[in-house]
Amino acid sequence: MTRLLDPSELRHELHLYPELMFEEFRTTKLLMDNIGRLDGIEIFRPLKTGLVVDYRVNEGGYLLFRADIDALPVKEETGSSFSSQNNCMHACGHDVHTSILYGLLKYVVENKINRNILFLFQPGEEGGGGAERIINSGIFSKYNIEKAFALHVTDEYEQGVIASSPGTLFASSFEVDIEFFGKSAHVAFPENGNNAFEALILFLAKVKELIKREEEKIIFGYGKIDSGTVRNIVPAYAKIEATFRTLSRKKSEIFYDKINSLLNEINKETGVKSKITTGSLYTEVEVDKSLYEKYRNLLSGKFKFIECGYKMTGEDFGFISKLYPSFMFWLGTRKGEQFGLHNPKFLPDDSVINTGIEIYKAILSEV
Description:
The protein is of the alpha/beta class. It folds into 2 domains: about 5-165 and about 290-365, Aminopeptidase (3-Layer(aba) Sandwich); about 170-280, 2-Layer Sandwich (Alpha-Beta Plaits). About 30% of the residues lie in helices and about 30% in strands. The chain has 9 helices and 16 strands. β1 and β2 (about 50-55) form a beta hairpin. The radius of gyration is 23 Å and the shape is elongated.
């Protein structure tokens, strides 16, 4: 490598070879190969993948800027000249987030900005709770972190639009797998079996009714259901892979208990037993109200800034926002069609990278 990549070049390299959560070894090496050639920094590897970069100029407190680096098991359909070369994809824009943070780091080092800053290139956001793992590594305990910042691209808004909200910006999300165990029988003699799939359907109906009675918004979503072996056998097994979203981690934990109660009801009504296995539990992302007001006033002069209210999106920056006063925002990317996040055709234009860097530079000017 004869020179440092510029942010757009880095983005293309990341997008060509996306990696799933906690498998971001090539991504980490690419970052190391470039960032490691900058002066005046220290680089730490608290986990097997990802980086924490320490830029220190004095004995004062630190700002923390974070980007996520992992991709999704999505097959790309963009037709881009730098389309993914494997069956994974940066369909949530993490390649853009990483390139923005990399560009900010280059700017800070090359211009000798007089502020202590930590740059977190975080693995495992897509269901792995990488932010929580970074925190649990103890790396942050070495620093007096005063404020934390992050962004997330989206084509919900036109390119260059900043959208945020004081208080809860992103929801708490909780992943659950629920298995149902019945008894198989020939479909001609269903009385000899116990249909696990029908128990699953009953469960979904009860969850729907439960949510109708809730005072605050809750989403129970599922993307995968497995059941049955052949067409003429009553299924003895069924499984649903689901996630639900609430406006706080506490409410997620309460709703989880209610789901368990529903499963007990179904067991009594049908005789079908169940087992629930939990996955990642993300806390909500909280935007500090004073920081929101400060940066809305600052950024509105140069960028279009809108208050968007809360979204039911899950984001593990919530773990960081619970530790430090934080400002997170959406950065709009739409220049035509809207596909949405996690879509195989989602592809922000490179030009949004410079916009993100400029926003972060503006934030640095008033910290």
